Amino acid sequence: MKVLTRLTLRNLKLNRKRTIVTIIGIILSAAMICGVAALIESFQDLFIESAKATDGNFHATFYDVPYKNKGLILENANTRAGMLSRDVGIARPEHKADPEKPYILVKAYDDAAFENMPVQLKSGRFPMRHGEIVISEQLAADRNQGWEIGQEITLSIGNREDAGQVLDFNEPLTDTEEFKEIKRESYRITGIMKKPRFESFANPGYIAITYLDESLFGSDDRVNISVLLDKPKEVYNVVPQMAEAAGIENFSYNNELLRWMGISKNDNYNRLITSVGLIVITLIAIGSVSVIYNAFAISVSERKKQFGMLSSVGATARQVRKMVHFEAFVLGLIGIPLGILSGILGIGVTIKVISPIIQSSIAGNGVSLRLVISPMVIIATVFFSALIILISAYLPARRAARVSPIEAIRLTGDISIKGRKLKTSRLTRWLFGFEGELALKNLKRNRKRYAATVMSLFISIVLYVSFSALITYGFKSTEMYYDRLPYDLGVFKYHDSSEGAEKFYEEVSSLEGIEEYSIVRSFYASIVEKDLENSRFRAYIDKYSPGEGVEEYHVSFSINTMNKEAYDKYLKEIGVESENYGSTGRIEAVLINKDMVYTGRYVEYKPADVSEGDILHLAADKYDEAAAIEFDVEIAKAAEKLPFGISYNNTINLLVCEEDFEVVLSLIGEENANITGGMFISADNPDRLAETIFDLNDNHFNTSVDIYNVSSTRNELAKTKLVISIFLYGFISLITLIGVTNIFNTISTNVALRRREFAMLKSVGLTPKGFNKILRYESIFYGLKALLYGLPVSILISLLMYNSVLNSFRFELILPWKSIITCITGVFAITFATMIHAGRKMKNDNIADVLKQEYL
């Protein structure tokens, strides 16, 4: 056996080019497996850490737990760690407060909660004892207070009440509410924290957090308990059981963190991730097996005479199999470690380059992308790479062991000539000439080698087009929402009168850098439908109502108006003269007959079956009376285009002129209409304009304003797409490189094995020009056959991916045509280049010497 081992090693040394190509294939395969695993683990780590920063490092929270029962949660066998918190109450400062944000929600955290809850210190320190407090940066910036670290403050803690009803902190500020003081507390400010995610611009106040001192608790006091579980994957089963055992009704999950940990109750999300992941893993496995399998198949084909000679002098089939397996072991021993190092190095360099982009777009909150390599990544890479090599070598080893000595020495099994099977059509001779016919007959008589080459091309085509489709569908699904928002900034004024908001929007409209804007006001109305079958709004009812069997169906409408400039521009866009509106004495509206609804996926549809001139009998609820106020609206135009600044909101949108809007308000009373709206802007520099608007508000209005920077979100999405593109196209490049390596190895070796054939043809008059023609025609036949099989399979896999994405998003099927065209061009370029390279090596061959070598 030692002799056979030495012979195998010597054969690897003598065939250095094939050995190197095979090792490169193994390196690329191992690098791809290791790189993908490391990349997944690194990004999962990034999103988990980001979720901890924004939503907290806990799995679930139990609310209003009696303090005496806390042990039932904290000491539960499933609990790894716990943290206590509670809402102390709503407070008002002792001195004059901001009239638009007069309240402070005081929370209390213990040490573990300060460490794990989503609060980030900006300066100072967190409270460490009773009587200390940390305030948000918005509260610290409030000029009405002028608070700073080290200052002693006194807060009145109590309830917000309106008409005897207690209001929650999140409810909007009302003109009639009162603050009922319960107690006073004094605190010393120890730090300023960044604005927590749970502090909204719409809240009538700010957040402050004090220290939760358990020594001051009575047994009947209530606390919230957040927990980290020993087995997070069981959270959705364990938490309800824990709540039931402790007699707790209210609990919630940290879904953001759990989702990035791979734990979700959303079947569509799980199905999407699982199905796409399985397709990706399958493509990797196919690509890896194909390149290594072909390398061993070629090796066995080249050494068939050698195996026959060894069998003739006593080598058993088992020993021949072991020779091939030992060759696989040696190549794997060299290729796998180099592949792992290459994968880690490649992903490490890539992460270092794109980490700044990631930090500013995807992650934020001080979280950065880092390279994470766990032992499982290395173990998985070694295991799967070894498995791929073993599978790849298995069939060639069996083939080598089964060969008979006489057949192997004579090489009669490589080429099997049967006239009927080699017959070609006259069209082939007419189109391609004698050389083309000869090339096609050669491919037919060498079916195994022909199939191996076509398979290499087929795999490369399928992998390239499939991954391109994956990228296309992934980007399309992320763009679906933001493509519907044509504006850059949404500006919303809170806690201000309608006159004050109107004046503010007018001031903003005069700022430099605004390309287009609209000022939108809206309120809701409805129609009650009783006859579902004949309803003009059947499509809407089917999407939003509970179904048949109810007596009444409520169809919701948004009554919208815009400033005159934006209104006139929209009418012009839909082909309507604005002069014809608002002059008939009737309330006329444009009905936006398009909506998008999420029913497990995003779907666009037409909510109404209406015509121009139809009358809608609408009703708006008047809050201080039992009866609703009714009014009629005539449909002057039905259009699908959304006006600038109006978006889908689960209602049917109607657009009226400002005059008609005021008429309706006069009927129902402006104080009862619950008007919402804002200003929507397209700008040449949205970020700079947003800062200018904030400055304008602080210097002249000093009331709450919220700006939704769609442009910033789009830019972050573009950065995210760039990062994803870098990784996925890098992955495609690696897949393509594996395919090119495979094709080069297969074609060049096949051409080299036909030295005797070409020498015989040259001996009977084949010219160099004719020789080159044969190679070119073979390249064409290789490419056409591979494309004939590869493109339909690629399109089929693209359809499977499309159906996977449809679990969450709905859009028209898009095939990656650019990638398909690139693939067609690339296939012929690769085959032609490889054939020419292999043919040049035989240019100066001596015919007699080649024929002698073949008969040795």
Report what the structure shows:
The protein is an alpha+beta fold. The chain folds into four domains: 1-50 and 274-414, no CATH class; 60-253, no CATH class; 419-482 and 712-856, no CATH class; 514-683, no CATH class. Helix content is 53%, strand content 19%. The chain contains 25 helices and 22 strands. It has a nine-stranded mixed beta sheet with strand order 18-19-15-20-14-13-21-12-22. β16 and β17 form a beta hairpin. The model has no long low-confidence stretch (mean pLDDT 79).
Main pleated-sheet profile? 9 strands, mixed
Radius of gyration (CA) equals 37 Å
Low-confidence stretches: none
Task: Report the sheet-strand fraction.
Answer: 15-25%
What's the overall average pLDDT, rounded?
79
Distance between the first and last residues' Cα: 26 Å
Shape: globular
Number of strands: 22
Count of separate DSSP helical elements: 25
Count of all domains? 4
Helical amount:
40-55%
Category by helix and strand content: alpha+beta
The order of strands across the largest sheet is: 18-19-15-20-14-13-21-12-22
Summary keywords:
nine-stranded mixed β-sheet, 4 domains, 856 residues, alpha+beta, globular
